[in-house]
């Protein structure tokens, strides 16, 4: 992207690609049908999201921010605002943004300074500077709808004093046509490590006209409605990148000849054998395959819980699904993106030196996926959310709901029944010990949470791998259709249990190691 005098120009081809995307109706895939959305469930949208992320993470961010903003508007805005904005957002004619971060306030949104003053005509004047705003300005759509967090003059301090406002780039006339420019501008764009085709903007709001979304001082609550969707989506960004890395690496490992198989030459007519014959190359490919397919199954399970929480008519079922979403969303966001980086690096490694060279595309995947571990709440903050809020504050109730689901799905004749149930018991015990430690040491939760999240995720992936293996066995017994694919599922499941699940042990040991060493060094001893 380039910036000149407040205007952002996206790379060549982006306008055409965006146009095609919007014309296909994809912008409104999960949108409310009352306002022109397609009303598709998240389980379906999650599969689509992954494919678009594999194709181009930077591109995907433009339409996805609009989809996220629409979700918040649909859940919290007045009918008037919904009617005026949602149809054009679902059609992709207008894009959206989320304006939370300020120079001094990233993780800690309670200290934002952007202010909102009542204009006395149903609108507010928004003044302040937001940074790092994805798609804050671009040339893909006629209008950009910013959702901005700001503080009213009498707002209480901290997170309970934040309100949410809809602030359009161009004001919208009563007949729906575009009116004058709002008093806001893109001051510059960032020069970044990756996703360079996504405009990351400094946005200056100078008394810009905005409309309250939801209740005053309840802005963060309104954002939380979409937070679980957004965080699931960021996890899927990690997965999409990782799947691309795997497919590239697999093709390369089959084509590139180098060295001979330890079992004797495989391609005797050639000077060397394909990379695929080497154990270490297979290790990297299988790590990627096991993490990708596990991540896909796990995130689809969470997407299904989001759908149940939203659409079910059964209150008990809704409540249970909401608890599972609350517990598992930070795990999806953090673990799929961490695994995404691991797999992008592994894919790059399969390419050897060529992985470091720009033309092959692998180095771009490594650079692009890195942001997914940082934005939408860093992975450290996700881990804190999991252990500190979702587990400790619920007194372990959410965890018990999840472990109940896992245990009730296991039959004694399942291939991995014993390993899985043992891992579940260990996770329960790890949680119990950490919560006990935290009673005497206030630093335990923050110090242990990342290792705990990893331990949790290895068990959760074990569960979905066990389910996939069980389904594959059943299908293999029923028919020979898709046999190689189903057998590959079973073998990858075995690989997961033998070579990846043991990582649980080191994560658990690190989580339980206490905080003495962490807090004994003085700042100048670091
Ligand atoms: C390319 C890009 C796109 C972005 N898009 C958007 C967007 O569209 N809209 C938007 O509003 N923002 C956006 N962001 C901002 C992003 O969400 C923030 O950068 C992120 O939330 C972290 O905030 P920060 O950078 O201020 O880091 P800080 O909050 O300063 O954190 C620094 C480090 O300290 C850690 N930390 C902070 N507090 C704690 C704590 N209590 N316990 C333990 N560790 C802690 C963090 O995990 C992190 O490792 C984007 C950022 C980038 C780089």
Automatic annotation (TrEMBL):
Keywords: FAD, Flavoprotein, Oxidoreductase
Cofactor: FAD
Domain Acetyl-CoA dehydrogenase-like C-terminal: 402-521
Domain spans labelled Acyl-CoA dehydrogenase/oxidase N-terminal: 15-93
Signal sequence region: none
MF annotations from Gene Ontology: flavin adenine dinucleotide binding; oxidoreductase activity, acting on the CH-CH group of donors
Keyword Flavoprotein: yes
Residues in Acyl-CoA oxidase/dehydrogenase middle domain copies: 98-206
Pfam families (UniProt xref): Acyl-CoA_dh_1 (PF00441), Acyl-CoA_dh_C (PF12806), Acyl-CoA_dh_M (PF02770), Acyl-CoA_dh_N (PF02771)
InterPro entries listed in its UniProt record: Acyl-CoA_dh-like_C_dom, Acyl-CoA_Oxase/DH_mid-dom, Acyl-CoA_Oxase/DH_mid-dom_sf, AcylCo_DH-like_C, AcylCo_DH/oxidase_C, AcylCoA_DH/ox_N, AcylCoA_DH/ox_N_sf, AcylCoA_DH/oxidase_NM_dom_sf
Presence of the UniProt keyword Protein biosynthesis in the record: no
PANTHER family for this protein: ACYL-COA DEHYDROGENASE, BROAD-SPECIFICITY LINEAR ACYL-COA DEHYDROGENASE FADE5
Similarity annotation: Belongs to the acyl-CoA dehydrogenase family.
Protein name according to UniProt: Acyl-CoA dehydrogenase
Species in which this protein is naturally found: Capitella teleta
